[in-house]
Amino acid sequence: MKLLIAQFVFLLQDGRARRNIGSLAKFALFLVVIMAVYSYIFHVIMLHEGRDFSAITGLYWTLTVMSTLGFGDITFHSDLGKLFSIVVLLSGIILLLVMLPFTFIQFFYAPWLEAHNRSRVPRHLPAAINNHVIITCYDPIAIALAQRLKQYGHEYVLLVPEVQQALDLVDQGYKVLVGDLDDLETYRRAHVERAALVVTLNDDMKNTSIVYTVREITPLVPIVADADLDDSVDILTLAGCSHVFQFKDMLGRSLARRTLRARTHANVIGRFEDLVIAEALAMRTHLVGKTIRQLDLRQATGITIVGLWNRGHFTLARAETVIESSTVLVLAGSERQLTSYGAYIGETGAPAAAPALILGGGRVGRAAVSALREQGVAYCIVEKNRRISEEGEHCVIGSAADHQILIRAGIETAPSVFITTHNDDVNIYLTIYCRRLRPDIQIISRATLDRNISLLHAAGADLVMSHASMAVNTIINILTPDRILMLTEGLNIFRCRIPQQLIGKNLLTSGIRESTGCSVIAIFQGGGQRINPDPSEVLEADNELLMVGTAASEKTFAGKYPDTYL
User: Fold this and answer.
1) Rounded distance, CA 190 to CA 198, Å?
2) How far is CA 461 from CA 292, 312, 351, in A?
3) Nearest residue to 557 (alpha-carbon basis) of 505, 503, 488, 511
């Protein structure tokens, strides 16, 4: 009952709803007047026929005829009475069976239903909320970020201007606040002055407006924005953004760094003080076909293989694990050890002149071109749109699904192919096609949605980078700089205290890797950091561990050793 009253009060607060209810009331009054007139005429005609009925009987006859029930217990004998009955019947069909339902639905039920839906969508955050993340859009990055924040126990809210969109998100379990993105009151109701971070991922103009609006309320809250245009980076910074990124450019450059023709043999994907985490391709190196024990990289270079990616699946490094052509090594060590690894690998034997192919000349593709050009790597773009024809001999205009176009671009000799379109369905199609044409080529693909990463690997991609995951990792690293470092494809580094039950044990007998799937890559003690500690080292009470593992492994570790996060 309280809920119904609250919804009715909410309905009456809307001026349009009040006007609708007024119109419905006028129609109801018109019906009452019509029924009263018909009842009066009923008495007049009945008296003319020599019969007399009460007022209640007259109303009863009018309602039964107008509603088409027509019980037939009271009827006219004269033609005049029968003609009047036809008039009452036809007007009843129009007024009661057609106009009344339409008017009721249009002027009352639909507004009430809308008010009911509006009452389900929060318009104010709880007064006690604090250190929350405000996300001012709804896109794949925002949804992935919301899911990751929920995983790590951070409060968040998605700001959306449309009630229906908000309802859909509420039904999916997301925390939502309805309000215009350029309205100061929206951010006051979201308690932006107490937020840990504001994330705006709209177009550049909308982002600038949002930043100015937030800065009118608080000059302190950090704001992260995504910029499309290069000039917008400076504009958003001047508007008050704390961090401005160009995530599509970052994605394109990250894809390009993973080509076989790159100058470096390992790509740095994260740093934690003096510790460097890097990815290294095994394809076309002397590592392929050997076990980790046979390589003995730790003895040769000092660096440690903490895990291996193989077509989207991460596994911990074990002595008997065989390195495959599609394997990507995850390395941990110092800068000096990473340099030693490069010398250990030597030349990859990649073709000297064959260009890498880039399928798609959009923002991501052009960013990959810039990175390849800086590395001195030859490239060729395949693009249907002639707007990039200024690339000249480095561009082939046509569809990447056309065999002859790919032949002209150099698919038969290319060491790598980058698939960079924003449509995951197209990327999956092109991955299968390129793998069939060249079983030995390195295929690096972009994924717009995280859920399609596994599909692209299954289609034949050697490496897949998700636009949403990369952006989310960057944002999370800003939010928790000293606790969690999120790397590519869901690989996380996190810092924790020594679990009480492991004090006095060494790493070899602690069972951390076997029971959680996480590896210890460094130990902190007395302000110092020991990278790649010896497995026989005893864990002491004042130690802190730096761990690496997938998001699932980290969750397992947190469940097994609660209250160890710093």
Assistant:
1) 11
2) 24, 9, 20
3) 511
Pick the range with the lowest mean pLDDT from 35-44, 72-81, 487-496: 487-496
Mean pLDDT for the stretch of residues 171-197: 92
Residues forming beta bridges with residue 271, ordered by sequence position: 276
Candidates 451, 552, 544, 560; CA nearest to 512 is 560
Rounded CA separation 559/526 (Å) = 27
Beta-carbon contacts of residue 437 (< 8 Å; ≥ 6 apart): 403, 406, 411
pTM, to two decimals: 0.72
Q: Specify the residue for token string 């107490």.
A: 194
What would the two tokens of residue 492 be?
């996380």
Q: Is 490 left (phi over 0), alpha (psi -120 to 50) or beta?
A: left
Rg, Å, the chain Cα set: 35
Tokens of 495: 């810092």
Where is 528: in which H helix or E strand?
strand 528-531
Alpha-carbon gap, residue 411 to 97, rounded angstroms: 70
pLDDT value at position 307?
A: 82
Spatial distance between the Cα atoms of 501 and 517, rounded to a whole number of angstroms: 18
pLDDT average, residue stretch 354-370: 90
Buried b (16+ CB within 10 A) or exposed e, 141-178: bbbbbbebbeebebbbbbbbeebeebbebbeeebbbbb
For residue 214, the surrounding DSSP H or E stretch is: helix 204-217
Helices (H), ranges, 218-328: 230-239, 247-256, 292-295, 297-301
Mean pLDDT over 400-417 rounds to: 91
Place of tokens 């990447």: 400
Query: How far is residue 391 from each of residues 37, 187, 395, measured CA to CA in Å?
Result: 84, 45, 6
Instruction: Locate all alpha helices (DSSP H) within 152-203, ordered by sequence.
Output: 163-171, 184-189
Bridge-based pairing of strands 416-419 and 491-497 is unpaired
Q: Is 190 left (phi over 0), alpha (psi -120 to 50) or beta?
A: alpha
Contact 125, 68 (CB under 8 A): no
CA–CA dist 387, 381 (Å, integer): 12
Calpha distance 556→515 (Å, rounded): 8
DSSP characters over 358-403: EE--SHHHHHHHHHHHHHT--EEEEESSGGGGGGGGGEEES-TT-H
Q: How many residues does the chain have?
A: 566
Going from the C-alpha of 382 to that of each of 37, 386, 548, the distances in angstroms are 80, 10, 38
- DSSP letter at 107 equals I
Nearest to 260 by CA among 401, 405, 391, 379: 379
Residue 476 has pLDDT above 60, yes or no: yes
